[in-house]
Amino acid sequence: MKVLVINSGSSSIKYQLFEMPRSEVIARGLLEKIGEEISPFRQKSGRGEVEIKTRVPDHEAGLNLIIRSITDPETGVVASRNEIAAVGHRVVHGGEEFTGSVLITPRVMAKIRKYADLAPLHNPPNLMGIRAARKFLPGAVQTASFDTAFHTTIPDKAALYAIPHHFYHRYRIKRYGFHGTSHRYVARRLAEILKRDKTELNLITCHLGNGCSITAIEQGRSVDTSMGLTPLEGLVMGTRSGDLDPAIIFYLADKGYNPKEINNILNKQSGLLGLSGQSNDMRNLVALREGGDPRAALAIDIFCYRLRKYLGAYLAVLGRTDAIIFTGGIGENNPLIRTLTLQGLEGLGIRLDEKRNRLTRAVEGEISAPGAPIRVYIIPTNEELRIAGDAYEIASRRPGNAIGPAASKKRRRK
Ligand code: ADP
Asked: Which reaction is catalysed here (predicted)?
């Protein structure tokens, strides 16, 4: 079954076309700068690389271009759009309602629109992608996978903020958490690698990319995570501050900054960029630190210290931890960050094998020392594959689908 996974952002659409259940990527691509003068588009597949620079006014035109590229007689990978049986959409906010991936219906779309109140930058473009896909691929099963879904198991004691309770009832202010598809993917992958059932494992997963979050997973269920009502809370990120004393906001307001400016400062000008004054990219900061730049070194120290503090908290939350997983661009590729975060934690059962830590990049592997009580792993994240897997499962369960559960079982037995 061909499954198209779509990640529709405010001015971009990322996509991957999978052959499921083989989990094979047959094409992937990215359209950027939608709505600007020129929108660069790239697609890679077994039939080569396509690069187009054209004007794409909106998401609908964007998805049309993508589907034409996938089905192009010369460079495309499928003969007709009818071959695409399912489309899995990444949706950022599913509120408390969506605890897993779902079939998209008009009711689901209305809920996604409702939760745009909590994710104004993300849910509206996610919806645009859904509308366009329904228009151009009307025969395909459309599914939504929510960043928040994995965290709906977080108990109230970890999810509620200590503010008057009626704010939760009136406005649903609570910790929702994000990056759920990534935390779920790496946790599930480690269970496969260790040949253990996910319900036997307690894990701490660190997703460190431009956005960063850490999750405590008890017997397969998320029980706490560092991002909150929005993706601003928690760890230090590329341009986001993460945790701070909320009184700083009022202090800045007193100094004349308006709410929009403060929001922009905390989301776009803080984190690694704000601290270093130079870059939000960890690669640049590591190079600057090596060259003796004190602000880059400080930014990295603060990044790792905050991560270590959360790690300590989640070790206490879980009581027993089997493994720590690093993922995301920084988590997968940056040995220095892993060392600075975990060094000196032997007393807590964490010991890195420094040689393995230095050598393991962007591939699955263990980096803890043999015999260490808490194992440490790198697992490259693959949110798209998780979304494709969910879309495949939902499409397979649909009555009248040739690839029903019975048929897939038969195939597996071969
Ligand atoms: P996003 O959250 O946007 O998906 P990524 O997961 O790609 O972002 O992470 C981006 C971060 O990963 C950047 O800070 C970048 O410096 C870091 N990164 C990516 N590749 C490497 C690498 N080879 N070595 C060190 N850091 C890397």
From this structure: acetate + ATP = acetyl phosphate + ADP
| 233, 178 Cβ separation under 8 angstroms | no
Q: Is 283 in the pocket of ligand 1 (CB under 6 A)?
A: yes
Residue 277 falls inside a structural domain: yes
Query: pLDDT tens for residues 241-274?
Result: 999 999 999 999 999 999 999 999 999 999 999 9
Identify the domain containing residue 297 by its residue range: 197-381
Average pLDDT over residues 72-79: 94
pLDDT single digits (tens) 357-378: 998 888 999 999 999 999 999 9
Report the DSSP beta bridge partners of residue 145. 90
C-alpha closest to that of 99 among 159, 160, 157, 145: 145
Of 32, 334, 340, 382, which is best to mutate to test ligand 1, by the most ligand atoms within 8 angstroms of its C-beta?
A: 334
The answer, yes or no, to whether any atom of ligand 1 lies below 6 A from the CB of 205, is: no
C-alpha 5 to ligand 1 mean position (Å): 22
Q: How many domains does the chain have?
A: 2
Residues 21 and 137 in one domain: yes
What is the sign, positive or negative, of the torsion defined by CA atoms of 218, 203, 93, 89? negative
In a domain? residue 401:
no
389 is a domain residue = no
Position 50 in a domain: yes
Decide: residue 255, CB within 10 A, 0-12 exposed, 13-18 middle, 19+ buried.
exposed
Residues forming the active site: 147
* 365 shares a domain with 238: yes
For residue 380, the CA-to-ligand 1 centroid distance in Å is: 11
330 C-alpha to center of ligand 1: Å?
A: 5
Q: How far is CA 57 from CA 49, 70, 145, 241, in A?
A: 23, 20, 26, 33
Judge residue 142's burial from the number of C-beta atoms within 10 Å of its C-beta, 0-12 exposed, 13-18 middle, 19 or more buried. Answer: buried
The domain spanning residue 84 has which CATH number? 3.30.420.40
Cα 25–31–37 angle (5° rounding)? 165
- Which DSSP string do the residues of 177-211 spell out, in sequence order? -S-HHHHHHHHHHHHHHHT--GGG-EEEEEEESSS
Distances 169 to 72, 99, 227, 245 between C-alpha atoms, Å: 51, 19, 20, 24
Same domain, 295 and 208: yes
